[in-house]
């Protein structure tokens, strides 16, 4: 077992580089009717009284502020959907990797908690981070946390403005950390130089 700082790495037999399944990430937004999303955002601004009462002579300014808030909510929602899609792709990739490990004698024992050092499902997330996978600004752990929280991304009208503006980061972080701690400790990482995989984008919904 290799140790680097406070990181422990599983012992991968041999010296070969193992090819893992490709990570397929959807590039489509997943939002088919952006006009409907905008309508939901406008309704949320009205319902939540997000804009304070304004004197009648400032009605145009009031409308502008409402529109700005609605646009901001839509941007926050699309950011949430992007994270969820990455998380969904990563969770599916982890399942495929587990199948690959089970099929290869040299890798099979690495995921067994009764053998030490061992890896866990969260070790695949760490591998993505160690490989410096380009995500376009998506936080990998947060993305997985979003997918663990939501089986499907709910429509914008199901959210509160507080969730979109303030709470989604902490909810996703808590979900990921709780999931990562499900495996018995100590958990070791995969040596990134021993594994290779491609990250591919697809426009399929």
Task: Note down, in words, how this protein is organized.
The strands form three sheets. Strands 1-2 form a two-stranded antiparallel sheet. α1 (34-47) packs across α2, α2 runs parallel beside α6 (161-180) and α5 (140-149) crosses α6. The chain has one domain. The protein has six helices and six strands. The chain has helices spanning 34-47, 59-103, 105-108, 121-130, 140-149, 161-180, and strands at residues 2-4, 7-9, 18-19, 23-26, 195-196, 199-202. The mean pLDDT is 87. The radius of gyration is 21 Å and the shape is elongated. β1 and β2 (7-9) form a beta hairpin.
Characteristic key phrases:
mainly alpha; 6 helices; 6 strands; 9% strand; 50% helix; two-stranded antiparallel sheet
Question: How would you summarize what this structure contains?
Answer:
The chain is mostly helical and 205 residues long. The protein has helices at residues 34-47, 59-103, 105-108, 121-130, 140-149, 161-180, and strands at residues 2-4, 7-9, 18-19, 23-26, 195-196, 199-202.
Q: N- to C-terminal separation?
A: 42 Å
Strand order of the biggest β-sheet: 1-2
Low-pLDDT regions: none
Q: Structural class, judged by helices and strands?
A: mainly alpha
Dominant shape: elongated
Number of strands: 6
Instruction: Please give the share of residues in helix.
Output: 40-55%
**Radius of gyration of CA atoms, rounded to a whole number:** 21 Å
Q: Major sheet: size, sense and barrel closure? A: 2 strands, antiparallel
Question: In the residues, how many domains can be counted?
Answer: 1
Query: Could you state the order of secondary-structure elements as H and E?
Result: EEEEHHHHHHEE
Mean pLDDT, as a whole number? 87
Q: What share of the residues does DSSP label as strand, in percent?
A: 5-15%
Individual helix count: 6
